[in-house]
Here is the input.
Amino acid sequence: MSKVLKINKSAEDGVRELLKFLLESGKVKEVFTLKKINSNNVVSYSLITRAEMIKDAVPLFPLMPANAGKLLSSLTLKNPLSEPIAVVVKPCELRAFVELVKIKQGSLENFLFISSTCPGVYPLDMEVNGDLSKKLLEYWDTVKKGKIIPDIRPTCNGCEHFLPYTADMVVSLIGKNTDKECEIFLTTNKGEKFAEGIGKLVEGELETQEIESLRNERKIEKKKLFDEIKIEKFGLSGLIETFGKCIGCHGCSHICPICYCILCTFESCTHELEPSAYESEIEKKGGMRIPPNTVFYHIGRLAHIGISCVGCGMCTDVCPVNIPISTIFLKVSEEVQDVFNYIPGKNIEEEIPLVKYDKEELTEVED
Amino acid sequence: MEDNFEPKIIGFLCNWCTYAGADLAGTSRIQYPPSIVPIRVMCSSRVDPLFVLTAFLRGADAVLVAGCHPGDCHYQDGNYYTRRRFACLKKIFDSLGLESDRIRLSWISASEGPRFAKVITEYTETTKKLGPNSTKKEIFL
Here is the structure.
């Protein structure tokens, strides 16, 4: 059981009221949230300091223009925040940020995390081609019913981690009447402290029947998603077929919240081929693919970030040639994470498995 | 499979244990197949999974990562990290349907010349059974 703040407005208006309250009362200096940049449902993450500008904020908009985990890391990479900021993010963005903090790419200090029981987000394509505006009604309707929303990101379809793990406040959306009332669960002491003075609190349970049934539905959906692509049957030929389409733009690694290296090894001179290297390669093999090493790049990236991948789906979204990267990464990463019973971003106290060890373990891989 | 197939195994050997073990096998004149191409690294934990992957995708029939026995690492705990990293890589190979038998992690100490020879003989045999690595034939990889 936790304390619940009930506001008799739509979910989005309720969150806006909360943000306005936080700014006006001086409890936070800034608000980090999605904001409309024009009337056509074009949104971007923004920092808002003036309470009157909160009206343009769309904190629960079903789109992820960038994984906020990466953005928050860029805010706190050098120094922790000096003054409190309220951020409204999706659960996977929060998990990504927690992972980044674990590898010392940011700091959690002075953040007030507001998240929601996440119904999922639409692919970026939909914003670009304008279809998203037509979808919004259907979106909120399906959220009320607690069902899987059609046409959202494939990884959102199969996401089981839609309940935020480390948020201070959680907006309950799934299975709720989001048009009429806004329920904000204060899940930590910090959350309760920040909400002091905004209104009356009641007691409530965040985990509902609807959430449990949606989780089961999504589990089935995830299995379907994996079965469709049959990753375990890939083998070398499957990999070449799938990643043969790759144009080597490295957009997936640039957008990936976990890929944090300032100079990626794949873009460094280590993996740069000199003209003479092309010649010797051609001589040896009788031909080569250009740009080279796309299969190597993707498996290599899996080896580097697999342990922390949160399956947010940004990579698939930005892929210009529609490779289902996030599905492949999610499947493989989950298997890697299962070896260590690790759920990335769940617990800030828990270190990344690769920086610790048990003396007696994994005897099956050594001899 | 051709009968005269001689596998090529790329070995990342730790300077303090396995490399010295290989040396001992040599000075003790123990016979083992000439299939291994040793690369000396200061510690098995120096081996980025990308090294293994590069060797594998560029046509090595097998890749061996070898270092000190757990607890004996020259740098106290390097090989424990190697083990975790290697477990991840092996899992990735399995999940993508690649032959994970083509990568192996072994602990061979500086005094284990005979064990070095045994590991190489054994691994050469296993690799022979697997046949040439299919990455060799893939031109446009």
Notes: Chain A has 14 helices and eight strands. Chain A touches chain B at residues 231-236, 238-240, 244, 265, 285-289, 292-293, 295-296, 299-300, 302-304, 306-307, 331-332, 335-336, 339-340, 353-355, 357-359, 361-362, 365-367 (CB under 8 Å). The radius of gyration of chain A is 22 Å. The first strand of chain A starts at residue 2 and ends at 7.
